[in-house]
Amino acid sequence: MPSRLITPSQLSLFSISPVIGAWWEELQAQKLFDGSKPAVSELDQQLFADGLRHEQVLLTKLEKEGRSMARLPGKQTDADYAATREAMAQGVEFIHQASLCNEEMRGSADLLRRIDRPSMLGEWSYIPIECKLASKPKTTFLVQASAYCELLTPLLGHRPDQFELYLGGGKFQPYGTDQFWAWYQLLRQRYRQFREGFNPAVIPEDAPGDHGGWSTFIEQRLEEARDLMLVAGMRQNQRQKLRAAGISTIEELAAVPGGTAIPGLTGEALHELRQQAELQLQPLDADGRPAYRLRPIESDKGLAALPAADAGDIWFDMEGVHDPVSGSKLEYLFGACYRATPVGEPLFKAFWAHSEAEEKRAFEGWVDWVEERRLKFPGLRIYHYAAYEKTAMRRLAQQHASREAEIDGWLRSELLVDLLPIVTSSIVLGEPSYSIKKVEHLYMEARQAGVTNAGDSVVAYLHWQTSGEPAIPGDAPKASPKLQAIEDYNREDCESTVFLHDWLLKLRHEQGLPEQPLQLGTDEEQEAREPYPLELLSQRLLDELPDPLTDPEAIGPRGLSWRAQQLLAQLLPFHHREAKVGWWAYFDRRNKAQLSPDELIDDGEAIAAAEWTGMEERPSARTGADIHHFRFDPSQPLKLHGGDGDKRLQLELPDTGLKLDVDALDAEQGRVSLKLPWSKRDQRIANGDGEGIPKEPTSLIKVPADISKSIRASLEEQAEAWIDRNQRLPVAIQQLLERQPLPALKELNSELKGDPNRVSSMLTDFLASNSGITLALQGPPGTGKSTVTGQVIAQLAKQGQRIAISSNSHAAINNLLKKAKRTCADAGVSGQVVKCSNSKEEAMAEAGIAVLKPGQLDDSSAVVGGTTWMFCREELADQFDLLVVDEAGQMSLANLLVMARCARSILLVGDQQQLAQPSQADHPGDSGQSCLEFWIQGKPVVPNDRGVFLPTSWRMEPSLTAMVSELFYEGRLQAHPGNCTNCITWRTACQSSNGALYPGQGLVFEAVEHSGRSVHAPEEIDRIEELVDALLGSRYTIARGNRTEEGVLDANTILVTAPYNVQVNRLQQRLNGRARVGTVDKFQGQEAPVAIHSLTASSGDDAPRGVGFLLEPNRLNVAISRAQCLSIVVGSPGLASGVANTVTEAEQINRLCEVFESRRQIP
């Protein structure tokens, strides 16, 4: 081991750049670096100064509060170490720049805070606080904080169990050390190995990326080496494939002969990259212009997609700054060019803002100016370059709750036109990027403004903030030259957009392309611009809030706390926000389908390059239909599902505008069938439009369905009663919104600890004797949640109560209804168990459950199942004693609000640690949470005064239960003692990858080495096939309450899951019926003696949708916990040693590291 002590900063650099940045840092630390790093940019200097200011703000605040503080030098000398130990021994409240060391590491903690926990020091202890300028936590902060926890351990006699981050905006963020410790320990081990194997003579291959303080240095080396990343549009994975084929420079790429095949790259992609490289190598012309080449004209793409010019057109650009100390984002300048005459010089208009309130006024002024101009020029468009302006418009409208209807109208009518995709689809440019600063070399002379780029603009604005200059641009002393320089820069950006538009129009004219007038959308897409009634009602509630809101828990005149009133206001437009985002995404996808369809490959709600494979006719009594079949690449990360009931799925073919219902969709096999009614087909043909089915590869994009219309109408009717007539909210939902605990539940939970078998009877008694309450029943995997719920329903129904059952899916409702029918029959309940639905639902009728329409329900219907669409109806108000919401972790809080009036009390059944609710919009506050998530407040286990936790797993054997319990349930989940018998007796001994024999029970991680695998890992399939073959014919023993079940493993008793459809397909093909195979979502709620889960991706970088999807805790929990005896996770060790890009990913990798530990524990 090298003798030099490492630092937390070096370790954190290794965590994000373990090959490149860490190597150069080690070279410098060993004093072997003889090069020079580029000068620090002015922006980075400003950020460093802001970081020091941020830290000083905190120290000054603490001292003003009278806190004792030791300010130490932090130079890590012997005297500094001694001073730190002395300050800790004295119990000083805060220690700044505390020098700490052990035998391997040294560092100076930003701050130590004394806490009340006994240690070797006395009755107190210390935790580290890392002061960071960023508004959001980064994984490097976690590494540094964990390192200081390690350094504090020998001084305290224990490892600190928590640390804090002090972030931009003065926000403290606490974390439990155990959330990251397994990941941190693996990182330490890997760094030791890196240093032991460090060879200063072997320079690592340069690659783009985040290399900490070495990033600019590496970029410089890449440029000097003429690296492929100089090619505009070059992706990292494309670079890797080209390098693997021996092509490493831009010159080598430009010289690749036509017809060359590169593994992993399509011929089209290689052609694009090669011609880009060729043009970039061409010299400038006599006028100093770069080379460019027109692309072939395609319908609705590039120049053909450019709208017609209008005399009222506007060209727009924004400037913004993030203040890391205050934690606020400010759009401080909205700039726009326009013309007084069609061929006149561009005129410029600026809207300035220097505070949040001014930002709102500037945003409103800008929107109002555009709307006024539209009255005179209804065909105008707003042109911008790149996507930021469109995204910012959405954010500002929602953030300020202002001009939302106008912005929604802009987005729906495609008023905002991004010229970037039009440029990239029209020309190939001989520049290293397609930024407007590069593109303008084709049509503009050099700029004159002193501020030349966005970074300069930010620095100039930050300098202005401390300059004391006036808040208006212009000449000193009455105005600010600094702001004038920023405005000049913004004006030149706007003018550049004008001239780019002019140049593109000229190109189009030269190509003989016709004008494209403004196409107003259909009535379906063009809704009224006036705010929706629910938005107006919401705004009335918000307007009543005190400003500033200093005491959110104070009770307002409506009988709600101000916090609950604000939440209620945010919930009212929930469904509108979801619908808006759906439409915005639809228009974005339609635009991409026309201009850059390749971008749809990673969009979960679109199918890229669908190929028509055939058609079959399907006659019917009323009108027949053609069923058109398509195939597509199943590796696409689709979130589309063939809908049922209220959730019909419709897809559009953007090439022809045809919108069709999905007849069948198999994402795992990559097949979709669309239904074209003969009436629609014949009408199109009569109109001369053809049938509208392209026979060449085409995109298919999801069409938003207005499924919440009736829900919104019901919520509007209820909200008017709450707001206009001061009608009280249903008591149970008000308790939930207020998060009012139920102290009596603590006593119930205390009694249940002594006798957990009485949970259903005791919960029944509690619900029967308490009305107008909300509580949760949390049931981890295999705890009998459905059984307990069914028993509670039956016992309450026997007492004469009426129970409503709802959930987010028909399947969940139907399953619980079937369970309730059995328990009610066993309990001798006389009332009916029925499904309330407007559909026939023959499967329910076959199960002996009557399907009734809302008007057919009567008092004999003791247990009624239905969706939100049923229970939100006015005629079902106050008809039930209890509303049971199954899978409440997937039910939105807004949906519960709208149907809460149907019952006096609410029972939320579910497990927020399993698969969560889908949501599209970015909802304010807590309004986007599921009802269970909100009630439990993000805790892994329901608090004792909020509900009942089922602590006994009747499914999993004890060691497997213990691992699941530790990973997801704070150690609260226990296996039933009888589950010790759950075991596999292997037919033949099977050896794991670490040489040990497989056990018959527990959780095992099977390491399979591979690299570069994304959605398909044949190495894992090989190993899984070996495991399945070894398992088939083996015997299993499972406890079933008071009896034992024995059997032989067959295809029905082995579950195999994978996260991606391609891996699922290949596993199904390979195993060929020898096991049940599917995605994790498919098997939620099911169980088997053996469960095998394939992680598939080699690393986080290889994983589609990233580590966040692959290791999402709810999904991993479901995958592991299907097993009754033995759960095997098959995966690449590289997943744990990859770079964690977010705090959430660090937590997820930490859990995987804990699963890895199970590999070492195989006996």
Can you give a write-up of this model?
The chain has 1163 residues and is α/β, with parallel strands linked by helices. Helix content is 38%, strand content 18%. It is built from 38 helices and 37 strands. Strand 5 and strand 6 form a beta hairpin. Helix 1 packs antiparallel against helix 5 (139-156). The longest helix has 30 residues, at 481-510. The radius of gyration is 32 Å and the shape is globular.
Keywords for this entry:
eight-stranded parallel sheet; 38 helices; 1163 residues; alpha/beta; globular; 18% strand; six-stranded mixed sheet; single chain
Record the SSE blueprint.
Layout: H1 8-16, H2 21-29, H3 42-64, E1 69-71, H4 78-90, E2 94-101, E3 106-115, E4 125-131, H5 139-156, E5 162-167, E6 171-176, H6 181-196, H7 215-224, H8 236-244, H9 250-254, H10 267-281, E7 292-294, E8 314-323, E9 328-338, E10 347-352, H11 356-376, E11 382-384, H12 388-399, H13 404-412, E12 416-418, H14 419-426, E13 427-429, H15 436-439, H16 454-465, H17 481-510, H18 533-543, H19 562-571, H20 574-595, E14 606-618, E15 625-631, E16 650-653, E17 658-666, E18 671-677, H21 678-686, E19 698-702, H22 709-724, H23 731-738, H24 743-754, H25 759-769, E20 774-778, H26 785-798, E21 803-806, H27 810-827, E22 832-836, H28 842-846, E23 850-852, E24 861-865, H29 868-871, E25 880-885, H30 893-899, E26 903-910, H31 931-936, E27 947-949, E28 952-953, H32 958-968, E29 974-975, E30 983-985, E31 1002-1007, H33 1018-1031, E32 1035-1040, E33 1043-1048, E34 1054-1058, H34 1061-1071, E35 1076-1079, E36 1088-1094, H35 1106-1110, H36 1113-1120, E37 1123-1131, H37 1134-1137, H38 1143-1160
Parallel strand pairs: 1-2, 4-5, 8-11, 11-12, 20-26, 20-27, 21-24, 21-25, 22-23, 22-24, 25-26, 28-29, 31-37, 34-35, 34-36, 36-37
Antiparallel strand pairs: 2-3, 3-4, 5-6, 7-13, 8-9, 9-10, 14-15, 14-19, 15-18, 16-17, 16-19, 17-18, 30-32, 32-33
Helix pairs in contact: 1-2, 1-5, 6-38, 12-13, 16-17, 18-19, 18-22, 25-26, 26-27, 33-34
